[in-house]
Amino acid sequence: MTRAEPLVLGIETSCDETGVGIVRGRTLLTNTVATSMDEHVRFGGVVPEVASRAHVQSIGPMIEKALADAGVTLDDLDALAVTAGPGLSGALMVGAAAAKGLAASTGLPLYGINHLAAHVAVDLVAPDSPGLHTPTIALLVSGGHTEILRIGDIVDDIELLGATIDDAAGEAFDKTARLLGLDYPGGPSISRAAAGLLDESGVPGDPTAVRFPRGLSTKKDLRDPERRFSFSFSGLKTAALRTVTAAEAAVSAQPTGTSAAGEASVSGTSGAISSGTAGASTAGSVGALRLADIAASFEEAVVDVLVRKTLLACADTGIDHVLLGGGVAANARLRERLAERCEAVGVTLRVPPLDLCTDNGAMVAALGAEIAARGSAASGLGFGVLSSLEVDDVLV
Amino acid sequence: MIVVAIDTSAAASVALVDGERLIADRTEFAARRHVEFVGPALAEVLAEGRAEGLVPDAVVVGIGPGPFTGLRAGIAAGIGAALGIGVPVHGVVSHDALALRALADTAATGAATTVTIATDARRREVYATTYSGLDDAGLPVPASGPAALFPADLAECRPARRVGRGFALYRDVLGDPEDEDPNALDPTAAWLARLAHRALSSGRALRGTEPLYLREPDAKPSARRETLLS
């Protein structure tokens, strides 16, 4: 189908958000989302079965709500789009099956599309955007993804430059938050702790208090094309565990609160603590490590490596534009640091509105509309979902 | 009633009926790819109906029990199809379809009216439901279950009539199923659709589309860690 401004309904169920969005060409009509996040809190992370159960309850009502919000009917639509991967396969299946039910009963063309490409395509319809700027480097960071992409064209030219080889950045935040006794989702909890908002001191933690490891960032790593843009957060997680354990041991070893210099110093390759930590703790011990310090140092380590590798990608490709997407775009420290570093080297940073950065159906509809407008053939009804769909497979 | 039914609790099955008459049917036994199957099957079944000028009055989905991931594919497809056609979507316990098939002609054959359905619940268990016969609308009347049981526990109930793949899987413990036809081993959409037709045309309310899980998610809540740090 070729229509300048196709009316497309997009469905996204790759993780814990049941999203349905509707766009007309490059105009966003609605972005309707139900989340099962609260149901995952007691597990400390997204449980695929819990997410899938929520999707099958929400998908019908969300489709109806999106149509009502946009003031359109199914008869008005030109096409349907759905996330075919990557994501949690049981969760993806709910959205894909619902989309196929809609397509089979209406005869509308259905596009099975790539979740990562959709995170970038969302800027086609962002109300505050003049459109998607290409070429661009895209940094996608969430609980399930940590990728650097080169986007020459949103449909025909996407290249994965690097991705995490273990945990996603958001997952690292979640796991470390749990270690620190903080709530899921971990990112916002760690940011609040780092800002000193959890110990009622209001004194921000010292991001240099603990020198946490920067994964895959040695000179040797950066020389290796396979590792240059790759991420690893598992070492950071282990270092956080060692640091917390040692700092807690230090606390319990000094019940009176009097502390000798170096009391809390932690040996080891990854958790060396600088002396003279700023901010006296309420216990009155000088030099003891605060939870805020660990949180701030951890956040700094994650942000540092994300920002550094993104700008490396700009330098290597000669691309002077960066788009940030994914739920971790909500991290203020990441946005600030990325903005500073981009500005310093003359790179433009674009961060779509936060509700379009997290998983949503509008991004799926946006990419679907772009593909439909270019006249690409629909996916048919026989496709399967792919939990590890490659990013250059924009359309299945 | 013109009813389109989807059941992916064991087989993957889509069917359209006009009253008791089967118009179109796509069924894949031992199905593994429910999401791949359901789109084309649904499109073909609806097209065969359209060729006869038949538009569904309702969509029904089998709500299990059955393996969750495949089960949800059929339910979600049914939810989407109902929105697309503009008709209500209902849920039916998938075992009801096997029970109706087994009980449909008991009046003529004089076979016992108490029948036990057992299907594969994986993890060395079966999902079992016992029915006591048909009511005046011709609908199976559940007497106990559905429940996830160890085969040995079901065997203690000494089922009078044994229907479903659960018996084929645990023959040594449970005894052979009375009928080895694949249509008698797994719930099929054709019988689900007939059942929905009987229920809806006699004014009975059907369930919603929430799957019959019978088991909690495996994940264990994580104990909240307390830190000594302040």
TrEMBL record, chain A:
EC numbers on record: 2.3.1.234
Main location: cytoplasm
Xref: InterPro entries: ATPase_NBD (IPR043129), Gcp-like_dom (IPR000905), KAE1/TsaD (IPR017861), TsaD (IPR022450)
One GO cellular component term noted in the UniProt record for this chain: cytoplasm
Binding site for substrate: L140, V141, S142, G143, G144, D174, G187, N331
Domain of life: Bacteria
Cofactor list: Fe(2+)
Compartments where found: Cytoplasm
Gene Ontology molecular-function annotations: iron ion binding; tRNA N(6)-L-threonylcarbamoyladenine synthase activity
Catalyzed reactions: L-threonylcarbamoyladenylate + adenosine(37) in tRNA = N(6)-L-threonylcarbamoyladenosine(37) in tRNA + AMP + H(+)
Domain Gcp-like: 28-365
CC cofactor note: Binds 1 Fe(2+) ion per subunit.
Keywords: Acyltransferase, Cytoplasm, Iron, Metal-binding, Transferase, tRNA processing
A Gene Ontology BP annotation from the UniProt entry: tRNA threonylcarbamoyladenosine modification
Residues reported in the UniProt entry to bind Fe cation: H115, H119, D359
HAMAP family: TsaD (MF_01445)
Protein family membership: Belongs to the KAE1 / TsaD family.
Function recorded in the entry: Required for the formation of a threonylcarbamoyl group on adenosine at position 37 (t(6)A37) in tRNAs that read codons beginning with adenine. Is involved in the transfer of the threonylcarbamoyl moiety of threonylcarbamoyl-AMP (TC-AMP) to the N6 group of A37, together with TsaE and TsaB. TsaD likely plays a direct catalytic role in this reaction.
PANTHER family per record: TRNA N6-ADENOSINE THREONYLCARBAMOYLTRANSFERASE, TRNA N6-ADENOSINE THREONYLCARBAMOYLTRANSFERASE, MITOCHONDRIAL
This protein's name: tRNA N6-adenosine threonylcarbamoyltransferase
Organism the protein comes from: Brevibacterium yomogidense
Upper taxonomic lineage: Bacteria, Bacillati, Actinomycetota, Actinomycetes, Micrococcales
TrEMBL record, chain B:
Residues making up the signal peptide according to the UniProt record: none
Gcp-like domain span: 28-132
InterPro entries linked to this entry: ATPase_NBD, Gcp-like_dom, T6A_TsaB
Highest rank taxon of the organism: Bacteria
Gene3D superfamilies recorded: 3.30.420.40
GO BP terms: tRNA threonylcarbamoyladenosine modification
NCBIfam families: T6A_YeaZ (TIGR03725)
Record-given protein name: TsaB protein, required for threonylcarbamoyladenosine (T(6)A) formation in tRNA
Lineage: Bacteria, Bacillati, Actinomycetota, Actinomycetes, Micrococcales
